[in-house]
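Backbone-to-sequence.
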């Protein structure tokens, strides 16, 4: 589908936006958002499987969140949390402390993005006396600031950002295990053994390592869910050596996985959890909830607009919507419905090599054929474009740019889940039948944004 006149007009003007600030997968130009739908400049309606990359957890413009924002605009508006507190910021911090696992004394730090939350921890944790080193994972994406980029392990970041005190270990990826084909538990044990016997015994000695940064679902890396035995074993390893375990839940937190915190799936209690994306109800807001001693340093990371009243009021309202509308439970049930539907499509598709996820953060890995498991970023890009033509917005992620990310709003209904699955199945069928013109693909969609 070619861009219509109104869409094309905005797309033409979009040239003023720097390429470093955008990825365009198809000629969509936003007109408005409403609930679980988005509309282009011609008022054409789309389902949104991307959910603004997990930001639209309660849908777009939820009435309760909107009302809280309007009230805060009329009262507190904006000020510096670093200078004095506001009611929304303190209330949100209190509620996060209540909901995040851990019986120890906790504190909350506020920022404006998931990137700066991880950046804060990268700055603070190496200040632990005698422990200047950090460990993270290959394939990880923790953000776009320098500190968050240093602990990221995906190709684009790692090419330009590296630090001698940060080491990256293999993330357990059973579909593509670094040691060759194996079952989930074997992949998990091999990765953990490498972490302990190689990383911690050589380049990052445990008595010099302050923290291990872990994504409970490696989202940008391809919606990779670790085997069930890995997170508890990782917690045990950290306990043995006195290493802080940090969970990056910028995308998985606030109920998306079918638990309020993804850590709850394994009864693991991290020493710190980073939150972001949906926390501000669509406004810029992030948070760290951590052991008090981690965050009680000097205000080295106090940003001007971090924890402002308006986004914090939106955050309080977002938590209330999650609670009042049972969105954690809905994420589990609708996520299972989507997962089962994707597995049914996979059963008769040569393109879908693997389906995985937790709750409503799911991935479909696209391959050239299921026997070889060869990644096919081109077919994934074709799928994105064909879904757009059929009225469904999706994006690609993954180490090879070949995984379709599925993170719709948690307010998605069963009927909407079924409708989007039908569109995706049609798109798969069309691509497999060769009914797609590659000339439609924007230059930015493939392959430059996901170099192999």
């Amino acid at each position: 589908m070619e861009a219509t006149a109104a869409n094309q007009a905005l797309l033409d003007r979009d040239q003023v936006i720097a390429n470093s600030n955008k990825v365009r997968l198809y000629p969509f130009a936003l007109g408005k958002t409403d609930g679980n739908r988005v509309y282009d400049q011609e008022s054409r309606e789309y389902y949104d499987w991307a959910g603004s990359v997990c930001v639209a957890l309660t849908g777009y413009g939820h009435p309760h969140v909107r009302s809280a924002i309007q009230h805060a605009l009329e009262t507190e508006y904006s000020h510096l949390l670093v200078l004095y507190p506001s009611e929304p910021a303190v209330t949100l911090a209190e509620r996060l402390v209540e909901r995040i696992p851990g019986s120890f004394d906790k504190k909350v730090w506020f920022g404006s993005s998931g990137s700066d939350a991880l950046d804060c921890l990268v700055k603070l944790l190496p200040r632990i006396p005698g422990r200047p080193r950090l460990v993270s994972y290959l394939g990880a994406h923790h953000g776009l600031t320098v500190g968050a980029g240093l602990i990221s392990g995906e190709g684009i970041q790692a090419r330009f950002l590296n630090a001698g005190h940060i080491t990256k270990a293999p993330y357990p990826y059973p579909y593509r295990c670094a040691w060759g084909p194996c079952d989930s538990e074997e992949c998990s044990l091999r990765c953990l053994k490498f972490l302990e016997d190689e990383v911690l015994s050589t380049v990052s000695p445990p008595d010099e390592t302050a923290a291990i940064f872990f994504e409970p679902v490696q989202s940008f890396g391809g919606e990779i869910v670790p085997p069930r035995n890995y997170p508890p074993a990782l917690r045990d390893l950290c306990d043995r050596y006195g290493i802080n375990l940090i969970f990056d839940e910028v995308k998985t937190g606030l109920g998306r996985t079918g638990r309020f915190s993804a850590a709850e799936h394994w009864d693991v209690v991290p020493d710190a959890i980073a939150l972001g994306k949906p926390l501000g109800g669509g406004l810029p807001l992030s948070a760290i909830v951590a052991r008090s001693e981690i965050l009680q340093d000097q205000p080295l990371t106090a940003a001007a607009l971090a924890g402002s009243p308006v986004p914090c009021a939106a955050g309080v309202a977002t938590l209330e919507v999650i609670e009042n509308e049972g969105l954690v439970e809905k994420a589990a049930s609708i996520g299972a419905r989507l997962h089962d539907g994707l597995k049914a499509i996979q059963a008769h598709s040569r393109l879908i090599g693997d389906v995985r996820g937790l709750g409503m953060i799911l991935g479909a890995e696209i391959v050239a054929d299921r026997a070889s498991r060869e990644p096919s970023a081109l077919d994934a890009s074709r799928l994105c474009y064909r879904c757009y033509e059929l009225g469904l917005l999706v994006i690609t992620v993954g180490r090879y740019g070949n995984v379709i990310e599925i993170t719709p709003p948690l307010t998605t209904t069963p009927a909407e889940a079924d409708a989007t699955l039908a569109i995706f199945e049609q798109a798969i069928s069309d691509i497999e039948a060769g009914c797609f013109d590659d000339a439609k693909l924007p230059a930015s969609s493939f392959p430059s944004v996901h170099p192999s």
